[in-house]
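task queued by scheduler; priority normal; single chain, no ligands, no partner chains; default sampling; output format set to structure tokens
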Amino acid sequence: MAENVPAQKPKFEMMALSAHDLFAKVAGEETWMKEIGFALQILRGSSYLQKVCETPAGADSIKNAIANVALCGTSLNPALKKAYLVPRKVNGVMLCCLDMSYIGLAGIAMDSGSVTHIAPRLVYSFDKFSCVEIDGNMNITYEKNMNPPPDFCAGPSKFWDYVVCGYVVATLHNGVKIITEPLPKWKLKKAMDTSMTSGDKTPWRTHPDEMCLKTLVKHAYKLLPQTDRMSEAVQVLNEHEGLMDAKTSIANRAEKVMDRFRDADDAQFTDTGETTISPEEEAEIRRAEVAEFGTKEEKEASGLFE
């Protein structure tokens, strides 16, 4: 009588399960049990993600993408719509990448202690909007039009015809509210054009509004108190969108993940406390704003500021 030999798990499942030690070290066993269930559900439902195991770098990317879920403090729970595992070609190699929605990115900013609230907003030509800068303070008046034109509602094809700019409102732990300077349409389009996720049938084409909202949160974070988890999330997104050196990311990803977990273990994620801004930090924020948007005269010439 032949012995019952357990069937060998598919390679993509073995790579996912190999993330256990790294994941549990940061997020704990209970969170691991939940998230590995979501991860396996995603992997089993996507033949494209399963095929990334055809290369060593692709196989490793499954393990690292799941480990990054813990590092960033997000979730693959499909009901929450925070983060996803997606196949993406980086330097000719198909990888499994951790992608995040603007909801997930904003959630990390709040959960990690950077801000208590953050809200990205897109402004369209059919909205009422004005922006005035007085002594370095942004004064924005915004009234959303709840009845946009029919062709705008029909689909994403008319998005770029109507969008004007976007900005972010954030509240710090000390109660200070920050309103970022509006990011004009050409900068939002530049973010799309420089991303490797901007081809046909990609999120930039099918959901440009969601991608712009995520871009606004990433941009605003440059001017907000920094936290380990939010910085990690932005780095993860930049790597697989091609905004960082992809070759370095592929070659050194395993060691970099280990280094991040060692750092996380030492810090024990104590970045959730109250955050205040010193005069020096305020000055640095102003310098960053000038570097991003130019001087007051240059901003006025852009047409967005009165």
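post-processing summary
- Residues 246-254, 267-278, 288-293, 298-306 have pLDDT under 50 and may be disordered.
- DSSP finds 15 helices and eight strands in the chain.
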